[in-house]
Amino acid sequence: MLAFSETEKRCLRALGVISGLSLAFFVVRVILTGSSYYSFIPWNLLLAWLGLVFGWLLVRQLKITRWASWQNIALSLLWLFFLPNTWYVLTDFVHVYATGEISELYDIVMINALVIAGFVLGFTSLYMVHKELFKRFGEKRSLYLVAGIILLSSFAIYLGRNLRWNSWDVITNPSSLIINVSDRIIDPLGHMRAFNVTGLFFVLLSVMYGAIWLVLRPVKKRSS
């Protein structure tokens, strides 16, 4: 049985409150309107939580075995596959329009609550793994690695929103996914939508996470 530290318990409670707010808005909307138009909210929130869970499991496992072990390699891949879901929720604003079922402002606030929950889960997960990279590779190289992770996540968000791929397709339909990805990597300027969306999210997420890292980055102890 996995034991949680007091810090982890406080963090989980905070994340639970933020996620609960998003779900509460959705449930209230269903009760008031009888409509399940935004039924993707619980699912997308679950996928965002998996991005955190796999990051947390990886960090826990790193205390026991080295990163090159098969367990940690598998957890690292699962984390990379699900991490983009935490930031993908920002694109759910495309679903918001005046449905006539309820105030459009209500829907905006509801999706915003989902986005806040997803972003907090994503940045928390990335920060946990970044600290492990920082310990092993130092500040500069760990920042390069994190930038690469954010770039991959930004590209995955494009694949999810524009080409409608999801994390499960890595297992269920890898051949078609590889073809779509390779086309855009080989000829990025021939797929300007991929280039633009990836770049837009990369800038947004990098600047936001960079600000978080500036405040919370570990301080290396100097030898006396």
Would you give an account of this structure?
There is one protein chain. By secondary structure, the chain is mostly helical. The chain has one domain (6-216). 76% of the residues lie in helices and 0% in strands. The mean pLDDT is 90.
Lay out the secondary structure.
Blueprint: H1 6-33, H2 40-62, H3 70-82, H4 84-88, H5 104-162, H6 169-172, H7 174-186, H8 192-216
Helix pairs in contact: 1-5, 2-3, 2-5, 5-8
Element-by-element helix/strand order? HHHHHHHH
- The low-pLDDT segments are none
Q: Rg from C-alpha positions?
A: 19 Å
* Domains, number: 1
Number of strands: 0
Q: What is the mean predicted local confidence, pLDDT? A: 90
| Helical percentage | over 70%
Structure classification:
mainly alpha
Biggest sheet architecture: none
- Shape, per Cα inertia axes: globular
- Report the portion of residues in β strands: under 5%
Count of helical segments?
Answer: 8
Distance between the termini: 40 Å
Summarize, please.
With 224 residues, the protein is an all-alpha fold. The protein has helices at residues 6-33, 40-62, 70-82, 84-88, 104-162, 169-172, 174-186, 192-216. Helix 1 crosses helix 5.
Descriptors:
224 residues; mainly alpha; 8 helices
